[in-house]
Each structure stands twice: as structure tokens, then as C-alpha cells.
Amino acid sequence: MTSERLARLLASREKETLEFKKAEHQIPDSLYETICAFLNHRGGDILLGVDDTGQVAGIEKETAELYCVDIANATNNSTLLSPPFLLYPELVQYQDRWIVVIQVPESSQVHKLRGTIYDRSADGDYRLTDPAAIARIVNKKRTYYSEAKVYPFISVKDLSSETLKKARTRLSTVRPNHPWLALDDTAFLKKAGLISRDMETGQEGITLAGILLFGLEETILNILPFYKIDALLKRLNVDRYDDRCYVQTNLIEAYSTLMDFIERSLPDPFYMEQDIRVSLRNKIFRELVANLLVHREYTKADVARIVIYQDRVECTNPCTPHWQGRLDPKSLVPYQRNPLISKFFLQLGWVEEIGSGLLNVQKYLPHYAPQGRLEIYEEELFKVVVRLEATPQATPQATPQATPQATPQATPQVTPQVTPQVTPQVTPQVTPQVIDDRIARLLNYCVIPRSREEIQSFLGLKDREYVRKEILDPLITSGKLELTIPEKPHSPKQKYRARGVPS
Fold first, then answer.
1. Could you give the 3-state DSSP secondary structure of residue 403?
2. Angular region, 467: left φ>0, alpha ψ -120 to 50, beta rest
3. How far apart, in whole angstroms, are the C-alpha atoms of residue 83 and residue 180?
4. Eight-class DSSP state of 159
5. Three-state DSSP class for 3?
6. What is the per-residue DSSP string for 434-500?
7. What is the pTM of this model?
8. If you ran DSSP here, which 8-state letter would residue 248 be given?
9. Burial 387-397 (b: 16+ CB within 10 A, else e)
């Protein structure tokens, strides 16, 4: 939650998508009614520590921290909220006081609190008892949220056991005490909302979201034969391509594959943030890759694409449009196309809070490309264009187009600039050698299994969390490093080994 957005919420009044609750000494009973109502309606923000007029009363920090734990446990409890929808509240300091912020997305499922369905209106939360009103919510969600469709004849054996293991490893790295880790695969999928019951037929089965996240390739293609993601590098050969990545695997594997393609196709300039090296490429393009996977309309046959040109990166995605034309990223209202998929990516740490993705792109793009800009369009396809600045090597961009404007440049510059661009620079960009020098040295160092302490000492870094989140986690996710004790990721004897090295 950015300070700007929090200030805007506090300046507003309570409404259909915003609720204030004072909660000085305890969590109010009505909180979970609001959470259930938001899940069933349009989603919204809940601010604990704020009175009905928007005045910040605040909560003691220790008390607020306990609230966050209690709310996470309660929303994961199927006897309270069914089906469960695990939420992670955020502790935010506003001026000198603490607030608990709970962002609740609209769910693609219908939720009950202690067996009762709640809905939301401008006047607050209310119980739904009229069968016709309940049917309207069910039909609305079924019509719009294709990810919630239940497939009763698809079972866990139709999913990838390797991908399930990878997801568990990632979860244990991001949140070591995650409540889903101790569950078997069936219970794990139920808690994630990926096994559900059709409210009309009563049949239980894996949802389309579960199949997309974990399905074997043949399982996915039997249901969605047109499903694919195409990533192309078109720096030199714009009529065809220089490099290509064609993806038809599940979304967990697709994310890793597409990030590998981004890594070998785009540079990663050196950048420091608060004395810590930050990967601008990862900060910007992981958001775009996740956005491509999370917000796609999977029942449409259009292909999702990432195309990297010399001067821009374009991402296009099938969608059900809410708006038409070019959108302003600053005023864009976040709308989750696939809440179940989005929630799971959030648990994995691959996306951040609702609506923060494109804001992060805007935040880091000026450091990646000082003249860069972000453009967003929505029609039948959702399109994001990241305009990149022209680098000295990219000056003879006019060469393949032979425009008159390029003629004055051609005399003194084209010959010496085009040759080095093709020979020494382009080739590394389409090979896996475009890796930060420090990472290359680290992988070479980890030919022999190394502990986290050894790696931290080797890199000369003091921040343990930074080493884990910004270095080890991405290398494990991309498959460059592997755990020597994968079944016990937090073992004190755990070491990390460069992938492919014999045990």
C-alpha cells in the first residue's frame, strides 16, 4: 500500500469498496462479515485503526501485529470462511500511528461466513437469504470468472507432481510457516481454492485455475487446445525473429520459462537502492510477465505474446474489456480477471498487492531507461508497451527501414556503429551469457555446495533477507541453483548447488 493511495483512502468516505473499523483493543466481529461481503461483491479495502469519519485512531504496534496473524489464520479456516481465502493484512505506519490494511479482491467463488452468505452495498454488509439473490451472485461469477469452473473428472493425477513440489519449495522460501505446507496435495489445493464444489450440481473437482496452475501439458490442451504463450526477440530480424520461446506448459512453469527468456534477451543495468543492488530488469519485467499470466481471459483463443524490439517491449493478452482505448496507469482501477490465480501468485511472491504491478513498472522504468515510458491499451486485447530509450548502439535503428532521416547519420556513424552492434553485442543478448557478473561468479562458486552463510560472505553482503529474496530465491526459481536437501528447505544443514552438478 503506497502512502499516496492510503492518503486517498483516508480522505474518502466509507463506501461499497471501502470500510473503516476502529479496532483499538480487539478485532471487531463485523470484520469477517465485511471480508466475506467484499469477496462476494466487488472487493475492497478495510482499514483497521480508523474511525467512521476517516480519522486515524491508530493501534498499538504489538496489538496490530497480532491482528495480522489472527486475520490470516481466520481467513484460512474453512470452518469460519468457506471456501477459505487466505489474506495477508499489511501493517502500515501513517504519520506516527499504526494501521492494519486488508486488501480484499473480488473472488471468483461464492463464500460463506459460518454458513451464511454476505453481500455488500453502499450501506454496508448484509446477509443473503433470498434464493434468487444467491443465484444471481452464483450466475454472475460463473458467467464472468471462467477460472472457477469445476471439472469433476479431473483429479490430482492429471496435475504435475513436479510443479506441486516446486510451488511448495517456493512457498517455504517466501513464507517458511505458511499454513498450506503441512497439507497433502488434495488439502493443499482445497485451501488454495483450486478444488471446489459446484454450487448448482454439488459436484466437487479441480477448477480451471488449478488446472492452469499445475496441470500437465496434455491436461491443459485437452481443455484449452488453443492455449499458448509466444515470446519473440525481434531486434535484427523484425520480419521473423532472432529468438523465440513458445510456451504451452502450466502457469508456474510458464513464469520461470518466460523470465529466463527475458533474462537472456534484455540487459540489466547496474542500479543501487539504499546501498543494495537491485535488478531493474527483474523489478520491471517480472510484473509484466505475471500480469500477462494472471489477468488473461483463458477461454479466448487469441495468443498471449511478449515481443522484444530494439526500442520497446510489447505484451498483449486476450481480455474481457472494461474500458476502450488508451488508459492512464496512474488512474487505472485494478480489476482482477482471475482472483484464484492472482492469489496463488501472491502467495508465491511473484506479484505484490492489488494494483501495485504497473505502479512498480512506472517507478523503476526511469532508472532502466531514462527516456522510457509506459503505455496501456484495452480493447479486445489488453496491451502494455514499455518504450525504451535509444542507446548509442541503437542509433542506427533506421538501417533496416532505410528512412530519409537516417541519411545524415549514415555518413559519419552508420558503418562503425552497426558492425559492433551485430558482432559483439547482439549475440550475447540471445544467449544465456547476459547474466550479472556477480551471479556468474556465484554460480561458479556453487559448483561445490555452499551454505547461505558462505554465499553471503563470498558476495560481501550483510543483509541476510536481501541475499535470500533478491539472489537465492530468483536463482532457485529459475533453476540455476538447487537445494541439497529439497525436502527440508529450512534445514540448518541446507546448502545450495549450481544446477546440474552431480550429488
1. coil
2. alpha
3. 14
4. B
5. helix
6. -S-HHHHHHHHHTTS-B-HHHHHHHHT---HHHIIIIIIHHHHHTTSEEESSTT-TT-TT--EEETT
7. 0.64
8. -
9. ebeeeebebbb
From first to last of its 503 residues, what are the pLDDT tens digits of the chain?
677 788 888 888 889 999 999 888 899 989 999 999 999 998 899 999 999 888 998 999 999 999 999 999 999 998 999 999 988 898 999 888 999 999 898 888 899 999 999 999 888 999 998 988 888 888 888 777 889 899 999 999 999 999 999 999 999 998 888 999 999 999 999 999 999 888 778 889 999 999 999 999 999 999 999 999 999 999 888 888 999 999 999 999 999 999 999 999 999 988 898 888 889 999 899 989 998 999 898 988 889 999 999 899 999 998 877 666 787 766 565 567 888 998 899 889 887 655 567 778 888 999 999 888 899 888 878 899 999 864 443 333 333 333 334 434 443 444 344 333 433 333 333 333 334 567 878 888 888 889 988 888 888 777 777 788 778 888 888 888 888 888 887 788 889 998 865 54
CA atoms within 13 A on the CB side of 310: 20
Rounded CA-CA distance 204/120 in Å is 27
Strand 124-128, strand 112-113: pairing: unpaired
User: Rounded to an integer, what is the distance from CA 40 to the centroid of its chain?
Assistant: 22
Buried b (16+ CB within 10 A) or exposed e, 274-298: eeeebbbbbbbbbbbbbbbbbbbbb
Provide the b/e sequence for 303-312 (b: ≥16 CB within 10 Å): ebbbbbebee
Residues contacting 404, CB < 8 A, separation 6+: none
Residues with Cβ within 8 Å of residue 501, at least 6 apart in sequence: 446, 447, 449
